[in-house]
Amino acid sequence: RIFWGHTFLGIAAAARGYYDKEPRDLSLAECATLAGIIYGPNDFSPIKHPEEAKKVRDIVLGLLKNEGKITEVQYQAALAEPIATRTPQSRSEENYAMGLVRRELDAILEEEDIRLGGLVVHTTLDLDLQNATLDAINKHMDALEARKDFKKHLASLQARREKRGILKNKLTTKAEYEASLAAWKALPAEQKEKTQPPMPNYIQSAAVVMDNATGALLAVVGGRDAEESKLNRAIQSRRQTGSLFKPFIYATFFQQGNSADTRISDDRIAYGEIRGAANWSPRNSDGTYRGMKPASFGLILSRNTMSVRIGNRAGLSNVIQSAQLAGFHGNISRTPALYLGTWEASPLDIASTYSVFANGGVRPTPYIIDHITDSQGQPRFAITKSKRTVYSQRAANITSSILQQVCKPGGTAGKITTLGFKSPCGGKTGTTNNYTNAWFAGYTSNLTCSVWVGFDSSTKILEKGYGGTLALPVWVDIMLAAQKEGYPANAIRTRPGSEGQAVLVCRESNQLAHSGCQYAKTAYFETSAGYQAPANMCEQHIPMAEPDSEESIPYAEPLDGSDDNIPLAEPVEETDGIPYATPI
């Protein structure tokens, strides 16, 4: 909690802020620098005052050598190291998550509490996973913008806009926008006043990662750069879901006693066949019709005609009611077109609804603030975690089993394994009319993640811009990063997860984890229902050194009582040279 200058509180923030490193990765010289600036971080900041920082660093190094903590060789090498900082890459995606935190705080705290400050807000965010989520989004969006067919498509879209007289807010790539913004900033002041800065209008993406057992939000990324666009697409942007909605139709159907083997026609829909839509006959996206098939076939291959018939048999009102229980809300069109995904939702909505299939039919309420304390650590607020049953275990597990088939070769998300994710998972792609929205929502045993790709306006992303092509690769990279951070992907649950059963386990040895596993980032909390904890501690990693007993801790020796040994402060002469605080 020590203040280390700028906005850095604590050693982790200081290490990242000054050197873009974790504390354990700091060099000896960097450690000495941070130790030296503690008592005057603003005056000795290595960013603003490197010469002053060097002075205090060298003092600390001298003390370490004199006390025998470092060798002469180490001392000389550290002295020779220049004072060089490395500020971290801008992580403005944290603003998207913080925007959600602030919104929640407005609902939790009184205005006076916010104004007075002094409170400590403990969130559920995993900063490493948050950063990995943004990296995955930008990696794949940059790759999309570099494609020749995308550039040609973008130029064609812009030409049509200009032909219609739409000259403002030009469609660009992110790099083109940043170049035009830099050019505008370089203009003389008088020219700037006469022109408007360019507005960002490039391909966007948003993602949300949620813990299945608790509903804790671990990552909330609402776009590619919060400094360029304040719109938090993870929570504020509601887009049509397309085929992403179909699992909720099938789950309602299974809730009524039907099974995955129930035979449903994949043939053309006759006019008047669907209740409430006498003149409606939707087609399959590939233009083919395959006769009577098991219900599971319709969801695995996202067949429109089968899904509409499934919804017609389940009943429109029943589908709507169960979808609302699952977490869909907002304006809906109470027509059978709903079966093909006209209901709009945000990535946060989608992540929370899909957790139902990872939890045996139970939906945990998502939350981002765990608790709030005052400056003395006294509790001021704690979240009351809640869950609700949406589907029976049977209905949810049948649907989940099919969604796991979707993620295997032959399903609409069948290239998950070729993209590098080989652990058990379930999920569904979603693509809306004219390729204006591309989705993928999927889950493992512990996490649910939703990814959306599209323009802020209802603009075609790309011809054949399917969710399985554009959103799925982002999801894969996020979930691979989550595994590296210690979130396991075991067998999919068939009943709700229990946070009360959490056991710290090493994912490499599958034994109880200790400090060495945590240092190696292989430790994770296993929360699977019915999990049997291992009996032995991990032997693959070496435990970190434990502190000595209290008796062995050296204390400062007290001075004897003689006046000769008591150092006294020297009085300052009363001259005009005495510095006084300058009033504000």
- Second rung of CATH, namely the architecture of the domain at 204-368 and 384-484: 3-Layer(aba) Sandwich
Strand order of the largest sheet: 3-2-14-13-12
Low-confidence stretches: 546-569, 572-580
Q: Can you say what the CATH homologous superfamily of the domain at 204-368 and 384-484 is?
A: DD-peptidase/beta-lactamase superfamily
Under CATH, the topology of the domain at 204-368 and 384-484 can be stated as Beta-lactamase
Task: Give the overall pLDDT as a whole number.
Answer: 87
Give the overall shape: globular
Q: N-to-C terminal Cα separation, in Å?
A: 28 Å
The percent range for strand residues is 5-15%
Helix content: 25-40%
Note the total helix count: 20
CATH top-level class of the domain at 204-368 and 384-484: Alpha Beta
Rg from Cα: 29 Å
Structure description:
It is a single chain. With 584 residues, the protein is α+β, with helices and mostly antiparallel strands. It is 36% helix and 12% strand. Among the domains are: 11-80, Biosynthetic peptidoglycan transglycosylase-like (Penicillin binding protein transpeptidase fold, Orthogonal Bundle), CATH 1.10.3810.10; 204-368 and 384-484, 3-Layer(aba) Sandwich (Beta-lactamase); 498-546, no CATH class. The protein contains 20 helices and 16 strands. A 5-stranded antiparallel beta sheet has the order 3-2-14-13-12, sandwiched between helices. Helix 2 (28-37) packs across helix 3 (50-66), helix 7 runs antiparallel to helix 19 (472-484) and helix 11 (246-255) packs across helix 14 (316-326). The protein starts with 10 loop residues before the first helix and ends in a 58-residue tail after the last strand. Residues 546-569 and 572-580 have low confidence and may be disordered.
